[in-house]
Amino acid sequence: MKTSDKRVALVTGANRGIGFEIARQLGLKTFRVVMAARDEKKGTAASARLAEQGLDVYNTLIDVTDAISIQAALGRIVDTFGRLDVLVNNAGIQIDGETDIMTLARDTLLRTLETNAFGPLLLSQACVPLMKKNRYGRIVNLSSTMGALNDITNPESKYTGIHSPAYRMSKTLLNAVTALLAKELRGSNILVNSVCPGWVRTDMGGPRAPFSPEEASATPVWLATLPDDGPTGGFFRDRQPIPW
């Protein structure tokens, strides 16, 4: 096992959109970045693009809904680097845009929860022991204001006309995962936070979204590089705390 002399960051869903940009920005901050994707060819192509820019990047295959896939990827990271310092749980799906809570299918809900909430929890459980070895860790969960109970119950919210109940519930659960992990890990120098990147011009967000991936990645990267006295157990947008 080789031990890296540089901090190592794992970013899921890093082959495109926000995940790709987070990986790029962390690479510019001299991290070794492991870019995870569930499609090996797409992941390889994405990491090659950043390697051509001189960034220290690697790719690995991870299906966040598959515990065996997660453990295999962590084994490769340990064998290659001997450490892991940052986990950015970016991979996510939104497959219920035309559905309301009364017509939501069980399978749609389960698929969404598996990717958006269970996956980040499984990855965090696998990564925390590596972080504890160096008494340093940053876990960043890509969430959404659409999962904030404060926003769901607000009739004046700009998102009030958007249903997506499975997506909303998955992000509510992800925020609970964030809060519970932060509570469990207080005093360990492993900081855990959720972030809403906003409505972003990606395959999921569409071309009308107001924010570019570059703009949306600024706060996740800030959370991934917090100093030791930085916040933990919070929910942020534009580097400012927002209600759960």
Task: Provide a descriptive summary of the structure in words.
This protein has 244 residues and is α/β, with parallel strands linked by helices. The protein has one domain: NAD(P)-binding Rossmann-like Domain (Rossmann fold). Strands 3-2-1-4-5-6-7-8 form an 8-stranded mixed beta sheet, sandwiched between helices. The model has no long low-confidence stretch (mean pLDDT 93).
Instruction: Tell me the count of domains.
Output: 1
The number of helices is: 7
Mean pLDDT: 93
Distance between the termini: 41 Å
- As a whole number of angstroms, the C-alpha radius of gyration is 17 Å
Q: Which regions are unreliable across 5 or more consecutive residues at pLDDT < 50?
A: none
Any guess at the CATH architecture? 3-Layer(aba) Sandwich
> What is the beta-strand fraction?
15-25%
The structure class reads alpha/beta
Spell the H/E element sequence. EHEHEHEHEHHEHEE
Supply the CATH superfamily name.
NAD(P)-binding Rossmann-like Domain
* Secondary structure: number of strands: 8
Largest sheet: 8 strands, mixed
**What is the molecular shape?**
globular
> What do we call the CATH topology?
Rossmann fold
How helix-rich are the residues, as a percent range? 40-55%
Strands of the widest sheet, in order across it, are 3-2-1-4-5-6-7-8
What's the CATH class, please?
Alpha Beta
